[in-house]
Amino acid sequence: MKFKVFFTISLLLFLCLASNVSFSQIKADLEDYYQAYGGKSAKENLDANVQPLLELIGFYTGGGMYNTAKTHGILGVDVGVKAIMMVISDDVKTDWAGTGGVKGGPLGDYNAVPLPLIQAGVGLGSNLELMGRFFSAPIAESNGKKENITLLGVGVKYGVIQSMVLPRVSIIAAYHKLSVPVEYDFGDVSSLSLDLVVSKGIPFLATFYGGIGIDKSNMTVDIKQISQSFDYSSSQFRGVVGIKFDFIPLVYANVDYNFGAHQGLTLGLGLSLR
Description:
There is one protein chain. The protein is of the alpha+beta class. The protein has helices at residues 2-14, 23-36, 40-62, and strands at 77-87, 112-125, 128-142, 145-161, 168-179, 187-202, 206-223, 228-248, 251-260, 263-273. Strands 1-2-3-4-5-6-7-8-9-10 form a 10-stranded antiparallel beta barrel.
């Protein structure tokens, strides 16, 4: 189905796995399909398949935000790379309209999907930390210039309890925005996350951490040929348990397990100066 192709490629676009696809043609195919079926069948597929795509985006933008509840001291910094992987369960693989219950949707062909990104943090003092993360890759060339798909996130961590004896407790609020070149833009995608984090460290060895949070994602899908836009939102709870190894000075590695509506893993490696 052409509509299936559109959302599969939208997912691949987000994960930068299909840089040579003509996205403008896919958009045209979607609009033609929408008109040919009077909008009804296409809208059913749209409703059924935006949801798992939104949940995927929410999982990635909320995942890997932390590896400790400890906040940086003023001008303390860390920078590292993350690899976030979501396990695609059969429940997420939706039934396509008119296929007799055949599993499909934007995640139909995947069992797990990874996303790499760069993340950094800097201490502001008073138990506050500013966080940022970034992913960008070329998907188009216009007038000889490469254009990128970009995921940009900003967050703030506040240390509620920063004791040397008690477990540390922090809260994190973050906002993410997904941007694609205007020529291929099918709508706005954004996400908000709120987390409560607890951690306890063993000096020069490891830090054990865990947290609970909620991720809320929003998407506006524009069907320009029929001058209509459709708004969607998705909220999901997340739990995290993990361990950070920091027995090498200034270097850390971490792994955590994410559970809730979806399951997945985060791997991280970086440098930290607190």
